[in-house]
Amino acid sequence: MKNSKISIYEVARLAGVSKSTVSRVISDRGGSVSPETLERVNRAIEQLGYRKNSIAAGLRTRKTYIVLVMIPDVANPFWSEIARAVQDKLEPESYSVVIGSTYWSEEREARYYELAQMSRFDGVILNSVTDNIELIKKLGVPAVLIGERVAAQNIDTVGTDTMQATKVGMQYLYDLGHRRIALATSEHGSERYLSLRARAYKDFLHEKGLPFDPSLVFSVNLNEEGGRELAKRFLAMPDWRNRADSLFCGNDILAIAAMSEFRKFGIIPGIDISIIGMDDVPAASQTYPPLTTVRKPRERIGQAAAELLLKRMENPAGQPEKHLFPGELVIRDSVIDRRKR
């Protein structure tokens, strides 16, 4: 176990180098010393169990060695797994991670922004409730946005190609004979300003020559409460069985909650109605029936966001980068093959 009481002087003495050399190895990860010296210093660090005193280092360098990860809902496994991937990537680089869950609240988000502007963090990784990209850029610390935005052309962005992922799910429904597809999305986060799912939905219907019925587009919160509300509103449509044969949900939490609510009314997903989700959270494979969904690579998104933030903290003036990963269809049992009917 590494010992914070071991000093940098003891490491320098054991390695036979100066204190400043040890300091360069710790702060610059060895970039300005020879490979031989780097090996000696690292060996001494390991032998003594030295652990860097981040507080003292921060006083000297004005760094906090703390990164804020701001997500909309820590209870959603999609976001918690992204946060964990960020933490796993940043901790070996001596950064601690603070998780801030806004629960879609602009007021909570504003408080986190205030902390960032007070130099409490060295960097921020966030999925913003609002679309104020200029405010994010003016926080005074490097920031990486999780989730695509039209306005986010000059800020580092990591996420899923939402339009591609939506069309993958829509195509699967279409291939299995569905022609009256309903959509459940949100007015929060990126969807509030961008509506990528809704845009992909309309584009797909147009490409296939299918009519667009605005009454089949439901706007709800992307959580369990929203899923229960969605199911009730869907079943309240007059003659819903002839108006819609399937439901594409904006995320798995929404889909899972809706399926549970449908069953309360005797409507069995996969038999009476087709349902497809997005994200592929762990619970998606454990529902009844198991949920067909479009997987988003949560771990890759978190790792890429952390790597991009590290890069930006080293080079604040570099050109903004955007990394969007494709969605992947995961076929289970919640979608009916209507070609056989």
UniProtKB/TrEMBL annotation:
Residues 6-61 form the HTH lacI-type domain. The keyword Cytoplasm does not apply. Residues 2-41 form the HTH cro/C1-type domain. PROSITE patterns: HTH_CROC1, HTH_LACI_1, HTH_LACI_2. Pfam families: LacI, Peripla_BP_3. GO terms for molecular function: DNA-binding transcription factor activity; transcription cis-regulatory region binding. It comes from the Bacteria. SUPFAM superfamilies: lambda repressor-like DNA-binding domains, Periplasmic binding protein-like I. Keywords: DNA-binding, Transcription, Transcription regulation. PANTHER family: HTH-TYPE TRANSCRIPTIONAL REGULATOR GALS (PTHR30146:SF109), LACI-RELATED TRANSCRIPTIONAL REPRESSOR (PTHR30146). This is Transcriptional regulator, LacI family.
